[in-house]
Structures are given as C-alpha cells and as structure tokens.
Amino acid sequence: PPVYEQRYYFVKNLVNQHGLKKIADLGYGDATLLWMLKYHRCVECLVGVDIAAQPFEWGGGRLSPGVGGFIIPRELDLTITLYRGSAVQKDSRLRGFDLITCIELIEHLDSEDLAKFPEVVFGYFSPGMVVISTPNSEFNPLFPASTFRNPDHRFEWDRKQFQTWALDVGKLYSYSVEFTGVGDPPAGAEHVGYCTQIGVFQKNIAKATGSSISEPEEHVYEVVYRTSY
Ligand code: SAM
User: Fold this and answer.
1) What is the pLDDT of residues 165-222, one digit of tens each?
2) What ipTM was assigned to the predicted interfaces of this complex?
3) Which neighbouring-strand residues pair with 176?
4) CA distance 123 to 127
5) How many A from CA of 73 to the centre of ligand 1?
6) Does ligand 1 come within 6 angstroms of the Cβ of 103?
7) pTM to 2 decimal places
8) CB burial class (10 A; 0-12, 13-18, 19+) of residue 39?
9) What residues does 100 pair with on adjacent strands?
10) What angle do CA 61, 182, 110 make, to 5 degrees?
11) Residue 62's CB: how many other CB atoms inside 10 A?
C-alpha cells in the first residue's frame, strides 16, 4: 500500500493492540484515519481537530452512522466530533484521551507554534499515548526533485533531529518514546531509513496521578460536526 495508507494502518494496529477507547487526531485532514477507526469495536470516542476544518465536507458524510454502521452493528456506543481549531490551542475537551495522533502535522507548524505544541499536547491534553509522524529528510534524495515534499512544510527533519526533539519532549513531560516508521527504502538504500518516521510516546504511570484535574474548563474549538451511534 502507499505510504499514507501505511501510516493509517500503523495507528489502526496500535489501537487494536492496546484496545484504545478514546482517540483524538490532530490535523485530521480529510478524516480518512477517523473513518478507518470508527469500525473498531474497542473505540468509543473519536475526535478530530483541524485548523482548516470545513463544516460540510464529505468527511462528515462518511463518518455518519448510515455509512457502514448498519452493516456492522456496534456493541458499544460511539461518538465522533470534529472541531475547527489549532493543535497549539488548549481546549479542555481534549484532555483525558487514551491516544492522540499527529500524522504529518508537526512539519506544518511554524517555529512559534512548534514551540507551543509540546506544552499543549503533552502537558495539557496529557493523553496516555501520543503518535507523531513526520517525513524523514534522509529519504528525500530518493525522490526525483530533492526539495521539501510539500511546499507547505516548514521543515523536514532527519532521524537525529526528530529523535533529539522527541526525547527532550518525553523527558520534560514524562513520556517514554520509541522510534519506528513506515515506507521501506528500496534495496541498496537501507541506510536512509523509513520514508516516514514515527515516534510512539507512552505516558509514564507515575505522571498519570499527578495531572491536575482541577483546571477550569476551556472551550476554544468550534464544533463542525458531531454524530453518535
Ligand atoms: N493527518 C492527515 C493525513 O495524514 O492524511 C492530514 C495531513 S495534512 C499533510 C496536514 C493537516 O494539518 C492539514 O489538514 C492542515 O489543515 C492541518 N493543520 C495544519 N496546522 C494545524 C494546526 N496548527 N492545528 C491543527 N491542524 C493543523
């Protein structure tokens, strides 16, 4: 499968493997990942946040119960909510999730937003797990035009840069991190690593009790779509 699909399957497997119930996808784009996750029996709550969320996009249509929901009846209730908002804005409705995914998101953040991102996602949202994927720049010479993969990218990191950033974030907010990726390099170019690099962060148990539940509710995101099964 193409690399973008491999990224979604990576998340799907992780959700299955850990039986995760509450999942938020930051920068959900066309909502394909959320759509794939809605068929999981373990999932009870799906949330998407995107700065460019459109109220009447087809994303909503394919997330609605009518599509597939009656063919595969669910045992558990499921709610899906899409918000327009930024991954660097605090909204208390994003707290307490099992997993937050950021698939090809961070390379779209300018330096100011990238600096705010860890405090919001790891410090404030503070989910049990975080998955971050981003291009591995070491793979770029294998592409015909060796520039950024997308003109909207603010940066593309090599493995060392991503891992240094991720380990620092993990240390600061008490998460352990493991590195992997998807998109194998062709034979003979194994040294460049995966096309997409992925960090899987797990919150250290000791921190779980320390998180401040007394923080006031803050609703900043705008609901653009909501459905329940
Ligand atoms: N995650 C999707 C996927 O893998 O197909 C979409 C990835 S797309 C390259 C990046 C997405 O991030 C876009 O939908 C964009 O609107 C969104 N985005 C950019 N900056 C954002 C921010 N600060 N907060 C939330 N979403 C943002």
Assistant:
1) 999 999 999 999 999 999 999 999 999 999 999 999 999 986 555 555 667 889 999 9
2) 0.99
3) 202
4) 9
5) 31
6) yes
7) 0.92
8) middle
9) 24, 130
10) 70
11) 16
